[in-house]
Amino acid sequence: MTVGAKTLPQLAWSSGPREERVYAPVEPADWLTIRATNEARHRQCRAKVWWHRDIPIAHTSGVCIQTEEVSKHMFSSTVSPSPAASDRPPRVLSEQLSGCVGERVRICGWLHRRRQLKSVTFAIVRDRRGLSQVVVTEPLLRERLAAFSEESVVEVTGRVVAAEAVPGGVELTRPQLRVLSEAESPPFDLYRPALRANLPTLLDHAPISLRHRRRQAVFTVAAAAVSGFRAHLTGRDFVEVHTPKMVGSATESGANVFALDYFGERAYLAQSPQFYKQTLVGVFERVFEVGPVFRAEPHDTVRHLAQYTSLDVEFGFITSHVEVARLLCGVLTSMLEEVADRCAGELEHLGISMPSDPISTPHIHFTDALDIVSRGTGEDPVGVIDLSPAHERALGRWALEEYGSDFLIVSGYPMAKRPFYTAGEEGRPGYSDSFDLLFRGTELVTGGRRLHRYDDYLAALSARGESTEPYESYLSVFRHGMPPHGGFAIGMERFVAQLLGVANIREATLFPRDLHRLTP
User: Fold this and answer.
1) 17-55: string of b/e by CB count within 10 Å (b at 16+)?
2) Within 10 Å of residue 165's Cβ, how many Cβ atoms?
3) Among 27, 302, 346, 448, which is most exposed with the fewest C-beta within 10 angstroms?
4) Widest CA span of the chain, in angstroms?
5) H/E element holding 310?
6) Helix (H) or strand (E) holding 121
7) pLDDT digit string (tens) for 142-177?
8) What is the pTM of this model?
9) Do residues 152 and 184 lie in contact, with contact meaning Cβ atoms separated by under 8 Å?
């Protein structure tokens, strides 16, 4: 080897572990021998390589039937692709087929349904964006297709032709079929517009029932809502955080927690990230989190879960709950806008109309809410310290009738029904500087201003007859300076359930956890 005017000796290496290899100069006469040996090794390696495209294919009258008996050998980057590789068309999604008329394309998905007529079979293939129709006329392929159950995973290569009578206006003809995974018959027909099974059966078979378009649509909406939540807050200088879900004390100072053994010590699943998000206001000033929370509440109702996803927000330098409620209304607006932008097809399929703009949400005090309920129902409001579900429904109807609003903010709940860290309403002893937001007559959000001085926390716990010992780690934060702050939490599943009008919150939960369900 020549570099400039210098000739460098060739190097050969001995086999063995890298750290034991010996690199030594080689005389030019020996180099040809070494190169020949290396080339022989290379040819042996190449002979062991199999490519998916080289697996034999059974051809019958132009129809390809290929099974998934794929070699497990590794690919080698030293092997040049064969000319056949360029013949494999790219995968396209069902919604893209209308732009591919006249082209040979490849689709992949689940065998959604087959319609077998006398001389033709129509195979409907489902992917993440919709359905594609495949026209099968070859007898052998029709026979093979009939042997596979719906939900088998297939790859189909064919030519796209216009077909006005078909939804989407196109279909695939002269197909080649490759079965990637055979399936057992599903427990219910996924091709029907509505699943013909009760809710417990659907939840028992959630991995399958979630494939149905209506079930999918619910969680596509949920994903868009969370995206809008994140986008709104990130755009306002909030920092997303991720806090522990195993804690040493119960956040809400209540008994409804899941206890667990933590290396011989008592620990709990977090009821909320409340303590941590307050702590992190002292670090980032503005924080939010999307994560699971756990409530060991023995409620077997259509609106309660033992685990749900909480959208939490906390921020500093506020003066009252009004600023928190204002931010909340902006967040909800962004969530709804994201759903409308990204999920128009899902909303149309579900027959859902969007609610009123949260920015124009009416705002009333708890005492006024009781008066409204009393006038509407004749109930005596004396001694009432919280709103029942029936009260919330009555207030939801009032907000819609009086203001055309699907939302209502009720502030000033009695301190007796609020956590110990809640700040009091200035000038109204016994009432809190907090609020609930009702969405279509159901409580969706709880928020408010928090205490921010150490001495105030000591007084609040003392007034409730509680010891400070379980909260020492949390309380220590307030010894080192915390700004006035507040925040809120949105239950994601409840938001989606109210938006879509589902009867049971479990329909808006991928894999519900409640009094009776721990699987799947």
Assistant:
1) eeeeeeeeeeeeeeeeeeeeeeeeeeeeeeeeeebeeee
2) 6
3) 27
4) 109
5) strand 307-316
6) strand 121-127
7) 999 999 999 999 999 999 999 999 988 999 999 999
8) 0.82
9) no
